[in-house]
Amino acid sequence: MEYFFTEEQKMIKDLARRVARERILPVAAELDEREEFPAQMREWFGETDLMGVGIPEEYGGLGGGVLETCLAVEEISWACPGVATAYAANWLGIMPILLAGSEEQKQKYVRPVARGEKLAAFCLTEAEAGSDAGAIRTTARREGDFYVLDGTKQWITNGGEADIYTVIALTAPEKGPRGASCFVVEKGTPGLSFGRKEKKMGIRASATREVVFTGCRIPASQLVGREGQGFAIAMRTLDRARPGVGAQAVGLAQGALDRALAYARQRVQFGKPIISFQAIAHMLADMATQIEAARALVYATARTIDAGAKDFAKESAMAKLFASDVAMRVAIDAVQIFGGYGYMRDYPVEKLMRDAKITQIYEGTNQIQRNVIAQELLRESARKG
Amino acid sequence: MAEGLGEFIRVLAERCTGCEACVGVCPAGAIEMREGVASIGDACNLCRACVSVCPAEAIEVAAAARAEAAEGQGVWVFVEHRRGQVAPVVYELLGQARRLADVLGTKVSAVLAGEGVAALAGAVAGPVGGGAAGPLGAELIARGADEVLVLDDPALGDLREEPVAAALADLVRERKPEIFLFGATALGRSLAPRLAARLGTGLTADCTGLEVDPERRVLVQTRPAFGGNLMAVVVCPGHRPQMATARPRVFRSLAPDPSRRGEVVVWPVDGSRLVSRTRLLDYVEEVTETVKLEDADVIVAGGRGLGGPEHFSLLFELARLLGGAVGASRAAVDAGWIPYYHQVGQTGKTVAPKVYIAVGISGAIQHLAGMSSSDVIVAINKNPQAPIFKVANYGIVGDLFEVVPALIEAIKRRRE
Amino acid sequence: MKVIVLIKQVPETTEVRINPETNTLVREGVKGIINPFDTYALEEGVRIKERLGGTVVVVSMGPPQAREALQDAIALGADEAVLLSDRAFAGADTLATSRALAAAVRKLEPYDLIICGKQAIDGDTAQVGPEVAELLDIPHVTYVRRIRELEPGRVVVERMVEGAVETVEMSLPGLITVVKDINQPRIPSLKGIMKARRAAIPVWTPADVGISEELVGLRGSPTVVEKVFVPQVERRGEILEGSPREVAEALLSRLEALGVR
User: Fold this and answer.
1) Closest C-alpha among A83, A109, A227 to residue A166
2) What are the chain C neighbours of A47 within 8 Å (beta carbons)?
3) Quick check: A193 and A141 in contact, CB under 8 A?
4) Distance between CA atoms of residues C149 and A381, nearest Å
5) pLDDT, tens digit, for every residue of C49-75?
6) Which residue stretches of B176-208 are H helix?
7) Residues facing C149 on adjacent strands
8) Are B111 and B171 in contact (CB under 8 A)?
9) What percentage of chain B has pLDDT greater than the value 70?
10) B200 to chain A, minimum CA–CA distance in Å?
């Protein structure tokens, strides 16, 4: 479908596609097999300026918005959703600073990420605080001109690889979620350490680790926004980044469809290519339709955010929910179309199926997304009276 | 007159007023007055300062005159050599030169340049006239040359492109051959174009066919383009010599005929005029790793039929002789007989060489997925029902342990 | 350091169409890319600039659409680009092409180094580099796989020849042709692509570079293509029979007929 992109959007999409197909695709299977974080992050995304797509020009980026970032994430996901996760997580990581940080903080932390010189990570989730993000227990105690952080964040994407960590911690634990604040912590700060790299079902190229704070002392200037704003910043960050997950799901699903289609044309059984059997053809038709619907929803959501909409929690949740469910279904169907070969690790689709599952879980499980949507429906309905 | 870019600057004598403005402005000091008219010499570097300054508009830039078409006699072959060893392609070219010269009714000259080559060729030092040919001279004559033209000078040692091109150009201008052949080796492909540009003549690279059209007295050259997907037939009608290069092993050399007679002629070389702005600092033999599988023109691939890792050595030998790479089916790789790097197929590399020789490979669809775009597929398998025969251009049903060695022997025989 | 890189736009695929009158390739309607070997040349030029400072100027001779290749080159790091394009340049063989390029290079003097790719994937002759060097009266080295030392007036390179590597010193200004081993070309950056879009790429005619039309294009070409044909290979599925020696001979003869030795 023609989405009438601007010249700049087409340029970003084309370049991301080129990097994805020429550089990432050839190593995707190996990165997955070895569970290895790509060493080429700077080469792929820094030198090409792709890392700066969603970052304002004043901070070294290209000044694109959510849609531009989604276009890049989608193309990268086609080649490897794991690498796409590592890529998108940087944007997520500096988002709190972009939304609420001071000018100095933006210049200091955002610029090197835009240039691909440093990686970032967003730290919210803890062992006891997943969907119930309000239950976080990491604290940040004020001591003169410093804050001291204590606690453990879990399942942090780019954990250990990133140089810049935006962390949600409680400055006033007695206030619960309203007592949370947002901080920037740099790698190498004494008291900041990392757990082992998690062994995951999918997106294995992405590095997921515990991030541990033990008496981690940071200057007070590294508080982002004001004390107590932590949660609001976190929620706004996730709302904004959520379409990116949708884009990842769309790219993944498209990749699964393209491979299934190519295979169905070539695989001959009962004297005919299997695509000539309605069962297969109908599966492909359904897959393609769902992908297009997901894509349209993700793009519409991205455009609405970029156009300046104030409330987009519902749309953001819908895009992520729908696209991720589509990705899971499509990936499973792709494996089915490949038949026995689909189950073999030598063929690319089982990886996509393993990769797809996380899109239904992270950045808010799809159950939470449904809660959000229902809540928004209720709120809108109540307003109308 | 000076030539460069096929053009030169000349004075229109009838307009020149003898004001000498050009003499003063020429940065190369190339202009002098002769009988009141300005004359531009060889030092001219085409800067055109004189053209601008002349108040009488008596100086102009002109295109170099085209060489007369039918001028020129003789088929020449450049003798590429290193440390006394002649490159085998030279003999292959001599074979072609002999054939072409016989049609044209002219002589074949082998052109040998270098330092100390006169002794190698066995000539008595001196301008024209031969002596008893030494081993190299005799070999060249036995292989088809009627004469060996020797250019011997320290400036030509190492066969650096600039001095050799300059020396050859002088020789060509004196003797005016109609055809000049070079091997399409690293040296040939560097030297021949330099010479062609110097002479302002046509050069056709990598010829696979050389014929003479006796009526038009032109060399008809056939060569591949687009990576071999297209063949072009090229002629050079209006310029001499017609220059061409051919890759090693495209043509076959003549068996040496020791009864052939010829002369060795040492040509005088003015070494002071030969300058090289490149200098060879080091030469290190390197067994460059075999051609990369993805880039290879020829792939010899082995499968389960090989029976064991040691037999891959046969395929490596065959591939080496054909200038190609070795591939393998998944079965051979999984059995540990050869590293995964060589695997061709659905779960290996996809290749599209000119020739794919599948040895002991059944031709399962996963393997075909990796090589079915090859231009020519040859299958060697002892099972006549093997699916590979359905996609092969040429099939040999037989024992690979007999056929492959026979192939290796046949190739070696042809090379002698 | 001022580096000039000579590039050629070539068809992306090796599918070919021929103009029956001039026996030259039809280039319209086929997607053009920078000749792959030239991307290595350009990458090397840009790396030199990044290491030692200076500028990289890219020159190409071709039809108007060759402008895209020059834009790609700017996106990849070239500072300036020039397109030689005119009816008079069309149908050129390597000598006529070299004359045109040399004339353009003259206009860009002074420079330190000219870099070319080893050969173009359509013509496959590898002649233009050395011919341009001769016409400019500068030295050249072909098949360079590594630049060891580079300073004003002098360069030391590693050159690949059969079975060996030569280390060659060349005075500058000079020209080198490079092979794929020399580097890995980068992917353009978004900023580079945007810069390329805005770049002014002058188009030069024979008059602009001071060369007579008789010396370029089809008119200026000493060689003429009389005919082109597509070599025929059918999947005949011929089974060769006989003793191992006989089938070996039969196979080799057939391969030789197809141009494989």
Assistant:
1) A109
2) 186-187, 189
3) no
4) 74
5) 999 999 999 999 999 989 999 999 999
6) 186-199
7) C156
8) yes
9) 91
10) 42
What is the identity of the amino acid at A51?
Answer: M
Q: Which residues of C touch A48 (CB under 8 A)?
A: 187-190
Closest alpha carbon within chain C to B321: C261
Average pLDDT over residues A25-40: 95
Question: What's the angle, vertex CA B89, arms to CA B87 and CA B93, rounded to 5?
Answer: 130
Q: Find, among B134, B143, B138, the residue nearest to B90 by Cα.
A: B143
Nearest to B298 by CA among B318, B271, B328: B318
- One-letter amino acid for residue B307 of the chain: G
**H or E segment at B111?**
strand B108-114
Query: Residues B104, C257, B212, CA angle at the centre, nearest 5°?
Result: 10
Chains touching C by CB (3 or more pairs below 8 Å): A, B
Distance CA C71, CA C68 (A): 5
State the ipTM, two decimals. 0.89
Please give the distance of CA A334 from its chain centroid, rounded to a whole number.
23
What's the rounded Cα separation, in Å, for the pair C257 and C261? Answer: 9
- In degrees, rounded to 5, the angle at the alpha carbon of residue B409 between the alpha carbons of residues B403 and B410 is 85
Q: What is the pLDDT of residue B128?
A: 36
Look up the CATH number of domain B2-63: 3.30.70.20
How far apart are the C-alpha atoms of A272 and A249, rounded to whole Å?
Answer: 32
Q: How far is B380 from chain C (nearest CA, A)?
A: 10
User: How far apart are the CA of C192 and the nearest CA of chain B, in angstroms?
Assistant: 30
User: Does the pLDDT of residue B33 top 80, yes or no?
Assistant: yes
Tell me, yes or no, if the two domains B69-273 and B293-415 fold the same way: yes
Cα separations in angstroms, C120 against B227, C41, C116 = 10, 12, 10
Q: Is B370 helix (H, G, I), strand (E, B) or coil?
A: helix
Whether the per-residue pLDDT at B184 is higher than 50: the answer is yes
Scanning the structure block, which residue is given the tokens 């070999």?
B139
Residue bearing tokens 């790719």: C117
CA separation for the pair A37, C74 (Å, rounded): 32
**Spatial distance between the Cα atoms of C91 and A85, rounded to a whole number of angstroms:** 51
- pTM for the model stands at 0.81
Poorest-pLDDT segment among A45-59, A132-146, A308-322, B6-20: B6-20
Q: Measure CA A365 to chain center.
A: 13
Q: What is the DSSP string of A128-168?
A: TBSS-GGG---EEEEETTEEEEEEEEEEEETTTT-SEEEEE
Which of B294, B374, B390, B371 lies closest to B329, judged by CA?
B371
Token pair 């350091």 in the structure block, residue: C1
Cβ–Cβ < 8 Å for C122, C11: yes
Q: Which fold has domain B293-415?
A: Rossmann fold (3.40.50)
- The DSSP bridge pattern shows strands B75-78 and C203-204 to be unpaired
The pLDDT of residue A29 is 93
- Comparing B229-238, B283-292, B328-337, which segment has the lowest mean pLDDT? B283-292
- β-strand A164-170 against B37-40: which pairing, if any? unpaired
Q: What residue segments make up the domains of chain B, in order of their start?
A: 2-63, 69-273, 293-415
Does domain B69-273 bear CATH number 3.90.1720.10?
no
Distance in angstroms (rounded) separating the CA atoms of residues B402 and B274? 56
For residue B298, is pLDDT > 50? yes
Which two tokens mark A140?
Answer: 């940040």
> For residue C186, which residues of chain A lie inside 8 Å, CB to CB?
43, 47
Domains and CATH numbers, chain C: 2-215 (3.40.50.620)
Question: C187 and A48: CB-CB below 8 Å?
Answer: yes
Residues of A marked active site are found at 363
Query: Which pair of tokens denotes residue C48?
Result: 């030199």
How many CB pairs below 8 A link B and C?
269
Residues 194-233 of C with CB under 8 A from A: 194, 197
In chain A, what residues touch B369 (CB-CB under 8 Å)? 266
* A49:C190 CB<8 A: yes
